[in-house]
């Protein structure tokens, strides 16, 4: 069951690639919190990584905190292991926390289905946008609709999100058996 718009952000406390534990409460001062279910091997995530970095760079000074969570089964998909997460984040210059959901309980609590799957919360941690980053994962130059950036702008400007839901496009989360 996917989290419904207006729902409170489910709490978590997950290890990050910095070897520290990161609870949801750590981001309490963010005016907007973007939780992205992600991984290393998905071509959709790989296509969006630079845009994720750019979103944090563009909106971070105004109060956005982006957090990526990898819930994929690393036994079946070793490229998604914790050690490989560190390598991937460094090679792509991640400027946001990259966390490991080994138990997959956080992905289940959010109802995440894909990588990337976006859950954007307002300052009160109510779900304000769910879906995709934009309308063209293949070609950043061909993007016509910047849904996530628009939703972040709306939240940071104190407005209602103009398009609160889109269809998340990406690989399915690799669940453990």
Class based on secondary structure composition and strand pairing: alpha/beta
Rg (CA only): 15 Å
Give the low-confidence spans.
none
End-to-end separation = 18 Å
CATH topology: Glutaredoxin
Q: Could you say how many structural domains there are in total?
A: 1
Alpha plus pi helix count = 4
Q: Order the strands across the largest sheet as they lie in space.
A: 5-4-3-7-8
CATH superfamily: Glutaredoxin
CATH architecture: 3-Layer(aba) Sandwich
CATH class: Alpha Beta
> Strand percentage, roughly?
15-25%
Overall average residue pLDDT: 97
Fraction of residues in helices?
A: 10-25%
Rough outline? globular
Number of strands: 9
Largest sheet: 5 strands, mixed
H and E string? EEEHEHEHEEEHE
Please describe what this structure looks like.
The chain has 177 residues and is of the alpha/beta class. The chain has one domain (30-172): Glutaredoxin (3-Layer(aba) Sandwich), CATH 3.40.30.10. The protein has helices spanning 43-59, 82-91, 105-110, 147-156, and strands at residues 13-15, 21-23, 32-38, 64-70, 98-100, 114-115, 117-121, 127-131, 171-172. The strands form 3 sheets. A 5-stranded mixed β-sheet has the order 5-4-3-7-8. A two-stranded antiparallel sheet has the order 1-2. It has a two-stranded antiparallel sheet with strand order 6-9. It is globular.
